[in-house]
Amino acid sequence: MYPEHSPQPDPALRHRRGAARLTVLRDGEPLADADLTVEQTGHDFGFGCIGFDFVPLHGGELDPDGDEAARLTALAEQWLDVFNWSTLPFYWAQFEPERGRPRTEQLRRTAEWFRSRGVTLKGHPLVWHTLTAPWLLDLATDEIERLQRERIRRDVGDFRGLIGMWDAINEVVIMPVFTAEANGITRLARRLGRVGTIRLAFEEARASNPSATLLLNDFDMSSAYDTLIEAVLEAGIQVDAIGLQSHMHQGWWGEEKTLRVLDKFSRYGLPLHFTEMTLVSGDLMPAHVVDLNDHVVDTWPSTPDGEARQAEELEAHLRLLWQHPSVASATYWGISDVGAWLGAPAGLIRADGTPKPAYDALRRLVKGEWWTAPTTLRTDAAGRVEVEGWRGTHRLTAGGASASFSLTAPTADLILSLD
Question: Residue 125, preceding bond cis, omega within 30 degrees?
């Protein structure tokens, strides 16, 4: 069951493969000696991208017949053709700019649009010192803590059933010492400490949705994050996955660093989510810049050479993540150059709506090399057939009837009844 244009899977990728012994039934009886078609319909791996672009479109902010709605509608088709996970924005300053008036319905409509198309959703973030509500500054620290706890419970509860995964807290390594802007959350983190603030985020989110997948997320890949994770786990806080940011505006990490990061953080036995990936397709940000936000330019164009480099490096980076059994997802931080973070040409789609080589490279992997092509198989006299392919959802079709199943284990015994 392999695409004709793709090589046989590397034996080292067995962790990405699944197999099943299917018994196919029709009207309660085995479908014996029959031809059928099996095709992949979705990935188990999270190929993600932020969905921020589409909040104005589906949240009701735009004229549905206007040019911007048309641009975003076309962009959405490109998005859905390669991605199956989406991160939605819950930055407190934007989500609740006026105290007591959260933009719940706008985000809910966007979340429902994604979910109706089979996309797995994550909310980002529940606690962060940047883009936090400015009205917290006038409050006492005790009141900030109370409101932060209430905010977590409210938003996780309001989106339960739509969003089951959250960056519970973001960039805690720097949180208590952050001085770039005044904010109430840094003040709270100084009082509670890093571990105490993390405990607050995880326990409140867990109380509102016990089945939620909760991430600890950071950009700091140094021993400081490593030490923090150890302290959090030793404190008995249940972390479901480790979030690793990789904004590579100053150039690709390269194989050596990527493998070093994977080795360091996989030792905890938790799934690794590469939560924020970017690679620019223009001039690289100077290496001396410490805080990426400090690099401000009038224009930052995409270039042919930069686009070729971006495509090559994105593929190389994804292959390393795909090969590592601890990595569960990889989320790109923005499909389009329009509105891209820091104005960087880091999108996979140009401002004019045309795909860059990096988009094409990603699609070749997601829907080509790492996609099980439709294959014709035949059941035996007992209606049985063996199937192998990339882990994810698949559909079996015979005589106009079909049934869906998932490949998620080395070998599983499944019974399928055709509709």
Answer: yes
Q: Encode pLDDT of 246-281 as tens digits.
A: 999 999 999 999 999 999 999 999 999 999 999 999
Give the model's pLDDT for residue 269: 97
- Tens of pLDDT, residues 312-337: 999 999 999 999 999 999 999 999 99
Q: Is residue 33 a contact partner of residue 379, using CB atoms and an 8 Å limit?
A: yes
**What secondary structure letter does DSSP report for 210?**
T
Task: Reduce the DSSP state of residue 209 to 3 states and report it.
Answer: coil
Q: Which residue has the tokens 């042919």?
A: 304
Alpha-carbon distances, residue 14 vs 22, 246, 259, 326, 401 (angstroms):
20, 26, 19, 13, 31
Distances (CA, A) of 70 to 75, 132, 406: 9, 32, 35
Domains in the chain, CATH or no CATH each? 11-42+373-417 (2.60.40.10), 45-369 (3.20.20.80)
- Inter-CA distances, 3 with 20, 39, 80, 183, 390, Å: 19, 11, 21, 53, 12
Task: Determine the angle formed by the axes of helices 223-234 and 184-208, rounding to 10 degrees.
Answer: 50
Taking the C-alpha atoms of residue 127 and residue 131, their distance in angstroms, rounded to an integer, is 10
Q: How far apart are CA 329 and CA 279, in angstroms?
A: 17
CA nearest neighbour of 202 among 233, 224, 178: 233
The pLDDT of residue 288 is above 60: yes
Contacts of 260 (CB under 8 A, 6+ apart): none
Supply the DSSP symbol for 80: H
